[in-house]
Amino acid sequence: MTKWVFPVVAVSAVCATWLPVALPSQPQVDIEWVRASQGRNLVQVPNDASGSRFSLDALTGSGPVDAPRVQVSWRSGDKQEWRLLAAPLSLSGSSVSSDPIDFQGQRFSTGPVSARYQFNSWRATWRYRWIDREHLVVKVGATAKIRDASIRLKSGSLEASKDDTGFVPLLHLALERPLSAQWRLEADVDALAGGPGYAVDAGVGVARDFSSGWSVHAGARYLDGGADNDEVYAFADFTSVTLGVTWRSR
User: Fold this and answer.
1) CA distance 165 to 63
2) Closest CA to 52 of 7, 110, 122
3) How far apart are CA 2 and CA 12, in angstroms?
4) Quick check: bond before 27 cis, omega within 30?
5) CA 147 to CA 160: how far, in whole Å?
6) What radius of gyration, in Å, describes the C-alpha atoms of the chain?
7) Separation of alpha carbons 84 and 72, rounded Å
8) Are the CB atoms for 227 and 197 separated by under 8 Å?
């Protein structure tokens, strides 16, 4: 339970600062099932001659892995919106390493190695309805993200891990465009590049509206990013298919 303390406290601090000025109106709840497949996942810890750069996905496998994605949003006035998002993601596996791996001060010899990769994301977003028309809605804003990442290796009694929990600021863009009376196109992205790394979380899909504020949606999502600094070199990407249900207050 300890690993959840920092993300919860950090998100609570952001909410305590922002949310008092955000009077809830027209709340919306999205519950989404994500089936993610891993592309590359390159790791080196520490990021110097004492660490080995290796493919973590060769140990964990590429998936696919199931992950939930829960989002609550609401309007504040005519133009402003707020969003809270929880997007946990983790996968684990084992394989035979053909080369020794120096990781976090430990040497893992050639042979069977078990690995676990975690990349949980907790976000709070403010966005502004820049374009608000009947046939097109475009929202721009900023996202405060808490990254809860972890890499763990184990071979026999030898075990080592690298945890990385921190704050990441992102830019936000979202759009909605009706396709018919019941169908609409939806897209969103949280992203920022610069400094020692970058982050991208982009999704696109279609939604079908029903009565009483309910709708279902399906689409695809792409997650990519990482960091290159003195402590760690870690870059990974995931491609996902998504299926979800939404309730909107009327």
Assistant:
1) 24
2) 110
3) 16
4) no
5) 20
6) 20
7) 5
8) yes
Q: Which domains does the chain have, with CATH numbers?
A: 2-248 (2.40.128.90)
Instruction: Tell me the C-alpha distance between 149 and 229, whole Å.
Output: 15
Q: Which helix (H) or strand (E) holds 235?
A: strand 233-248
Decide: helix, strand or coil at residue 238: strand
**In a 10 Å sphere around its CB, with 0-12 CB exposed, 13-18 middle and 19+ buried, how is residue 203 labelled?**
buried
**What's the rounded Cα separation, in Å, for the pair 244 and 34?**
9
* AA identity, residue 113: V
Convert 10-22 to b/e letters by CB count within 10 Å (16 or more is b). Answer: bbeebeeeebeeb
Phi and psi at residue 173, to the nearest 5°: -145, 135
Instruction: Tell me the C-alpha distance between 101 and 154, whole Å.
Output: 11
Q: What is residue 24's predicted lDDT score, i.e. its pLDDT?
A: 61
Can you tell me which residue has the tokens 């759009």?
Answer: 175
Place of tokens 């184990």: 154
pTM: 0.85
**pLDDT tens-digit profile, the chain (250 residues):** 444 444 444 444 444 444 444 446 778 999 999 999 999 999 999 999 999 999 999 999 998 999 999 999 998 888 999 999 999 999 999 999 999 999 999 999 999 999 999 999 999 999 999 999 989 999 999 999 999 999 999 999 999 999 988 899 999 999 999 999 899 999 999 999 877 889 999 999 999 999 888 999 999 999 999 989 888 999 999 999 999 999 988 7
